[in-house]
């Protein structure tokens, strides 16, 4: 893990330079929390562990955690309705990896494969996810991880993950892990609605849409922290809360 330490002033500068407006037309498209995405005005603001592969894993793990039934195929169909079809399904792999091999691709899914129990997933469910790695758009991420912090974003602004840090000697490229809490929550509300509408889930005790949304939120937090403690161990966590005009407040949340 990179040992560069950013001051709070550095973090403020990074966010000031890297914040951008969310595109309403594409706000439910996603990227992974990975810091190796190149800065681009078209980069999805919604950042979630494993991008949409992570969301598929989340649905299945939530069913296991909360004891309701889930139809895997209908769950995938429901999620695709939320994002606008297969063309909008997003995942990534490493530049040297075979995109069909999870152990060499997305770091989040690799960790799931290494310790499925920690993510509350079963082997048949992981195999189902593997079979769907070819749908949508796979982005290849190149280079080493140089993340120096984890940012938890709240509000209607996105944050680009790469930043040129001024040092005494020269500029140094650093990266940050990004998790967009607000957009994740909004997408999960739609997802809960679609899962119920399409009868992709069957409850045992009359649970409702709000209950399912809260269950998804709970397991999403667990999955984020499981992967963070593996890939971002020792890094500081900052909560970044945006106002509508782009002003923001940074709250230190400790260390992974």
What's the helix and strand layout?
Layout: H1 8-18, E1 19-21, E2 30-31, E3 46-47, H2 51-66, E4 69-70, H3 72-83, E5 90-94, H4 107-114, H5 123-131, E6 137-141, E7 147-154, E8 157-159, E9 162-166, E10 171-180, H6 181-197, E11 201-202, H7 209-231, E12 236-242, E13 248-255
Parallel strand pairs: 2-3, 5-6, 7-10, 7-12
Antiparallel strand pairs: 1-8, 4-11, 9-10, 12-13
Features:
256 residues; alpha/beta; 5-stranded mixed β-sheet; two-stranded antiparallel ribbon; globular
Describe the structure.
- By secondary structure, the protein is of the alpha/beta class.
- It has one domain (8-255).
- The protein is built from seven helices and 13 strands.
- Residues 97-104 have low confidence and may be disordered.
Spans of 5+ residues with little confidence (pLDDT < 50)?
97-104
Query: What would the principal axes of the Cα set say about the shape?
Result: globular
Largest sheet features: 5 strands, mixed
Structural class: alpha/beta
Total domain units: 1
Cα separation of the termini = 12 Å
β content, as a range? 15-25%
> Rg from C-alpha positions?
18 Å
Instruction: Give me the strand/helix succession.
Output: HEEEHEHEHHEEEEEHEHEE
Query: Can you list the strand order of the major beta sheet?
Result: 9-10-7-12-13
Number of strands: 13
Mean pLDDT: 92
Number of helical runs?
Answer: 7
In short:
With 256 residues, the protein is an alpha/beta fold.
């Amino acid at each position: 893990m990179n040992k560069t330490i950013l001051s709070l002033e550095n973090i403020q500068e990074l966010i000031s330079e890297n914040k951008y407006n969310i595109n309403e037309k594409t706000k439910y498209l996603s990227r992974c929390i990975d810091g190796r995405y190149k800065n681009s005005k078209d980069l999805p603001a919604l950042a979630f562990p494993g991008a949409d592969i992570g969301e598929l894993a989340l649905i299945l793990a939530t069913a296991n955690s909360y004891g309701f039934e889930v139809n895997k195929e209908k769950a995938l169909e429901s999620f695709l309705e939320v994002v606008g079809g297969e063309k909008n399904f997003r995942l990534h792999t490493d530049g040297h990896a075979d995109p069909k091999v999870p152990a060499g691709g997305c770091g989040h899914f690799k960790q799931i494969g290494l310790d499925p129990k920690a993510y509350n997933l079963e082997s048949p469910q992981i195999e189902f996810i593997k079979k769907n790695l070819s749908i949508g758009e796979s982005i290849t991420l190149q280079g080493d991880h140089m993340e120096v912090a984890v940012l938890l974003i709240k509000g209607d602004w996105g944050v680009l993950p790469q930043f040129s840090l001024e040092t005494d000697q020269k500029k140094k490229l650093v990266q940050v892990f990004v998790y967009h809490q607000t957009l994740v929550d909004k997408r999960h509300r739609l997802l809960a609605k679609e899962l119920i509408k399409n009868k992709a889930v069957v409850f045992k005790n009359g649970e409702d849409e709000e209950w399912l949304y809260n269950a998804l939120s709970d397991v999403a937090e667990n999955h984020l922290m499981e992967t963070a403690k593996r890939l971002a161990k020792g890094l500081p966590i900052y909560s970044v809360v945006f106002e509508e005009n782009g002003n923001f407040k940074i709250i230190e949340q400790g260390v992974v």
